[in-house]
Amino acid sequence: MRYSKQREALLSLLRSTRSHPSAQWLYENLRKEFPNISLGTVYRNLALLEEKGYIVRIHTTSNTEHYDGFVDKHQHFVCRMCGKITDVDIDNTDVIQSQAAEKSGGKIEDYSLIFYGICSECCQK
Amino acid sequence: MRYSKQREALLSLLRSTRSHPSAQWLYENLRKEFPNISLGTVYRNLALLEEKGYIVRIHTTSNTEHYDGFVDKHQHFVCRMCGKITDVDIDNTDVIQSQAAEKSGGKIEDYSLIFYGICSECCQK
DNA sequence: ATCAGTAATGATAATCATTACTGATTTCTG
DNA sequence: CAGAAATCAGTAATGATTATCATTACTGAT
Q1: pTM confidence score
Q2: Cα B99 versus chain centre, distance
Q3: CATH for B1-70, among 3.30.450.20, 3.40.50.620, 1.10.10.10, 1.10.150.170?
Q4: What would the pLDDT profile of B86-98 be if each residue is shown by its tens digit?
Q5: Right CATH number for A73-125 from 3.40.50.300, 3.30.1490.190, 2.60.40.1930, 3.20.20.140?
Q6: Is the distance between the Cβ of A22 and the closest atom of strand D smaller than 7 Å?
Q7: pLDDT tens-digit profile of A37-64?
Q8: What is the CA A2 to C1' D27 distance in angstroms?
Q9: Closest Cα partner for A97 from A108, A84, A81?
Q10: Which of A82, B5, B38, B42 is deepest in the core (most CB within 10 A)?
């Protein structure tokens, strides 16, 4: 993987936020520094960075993908009112993973655990 | 919700399999009984049935949604080789859910737990 | 420092799953 | 049975993502 300014900026932007942005948001914000950057470049580099393990892709009920620059294993909570994604740390998930390995018969490499509900801000409204 | 043949057939087809089909697969198989059924009808009813809680939508790394006619809470395992989705039952997930509620501050209504890896069939190849 | 090779880019077109629209048909209630 | 409303089939539109392609920009060797 050869160096590129755009990719470095993308990764650094992703690592600067905990908001789990979409490709569109990243595109719009990268345009401040790279007015001519292409949306295709954003998608291409997101795929590349995910493949190499530098970022994580989050699949939710929403029809758009979200990305996370923090790769230390953790979980997410999605608010069904405002759509915001926040981090949640759950302990002892290895128990679950070993139980799944046992019951499925196959080789389990990873898992995704996403919580849905109403976030504290939206609860107050 | 008013009765319709197409919707009943869709629900019954979904309940007859453990393969967690996509909209496209359901459409193709419903055409055996309803040669003129529309893909739009399939999507419309999938959305309706999900909203009413009769079926579950499964979001995976694949770019298409999959559906499950069995709504008793359980988890899924997705093979990254063949793409097949199988059921996995994990015990004591309520521990996780209560831990998430505690740590997130919000109100947690549901969660999705999906395992990724290589299924037993693909392991043998 | 320049060069050649090749990966990455920007611009744009293509893809493909899903959703919206429309006029005809079916279901249900009185 | 009739009329209102939901549902349908068919099809166009949408929107996120991916692919294409000519040009540009890294990088290691001369």
Answers
A1: 0.94
A2: 25
A3: 1.10.10.10
A4: 999 998 788 888 8
A5: 3.30.1490.190
A6: yes
A7: 999 999 999 999 999 999 999 999 999 9
A8: 8
A9: A108
A10: B42
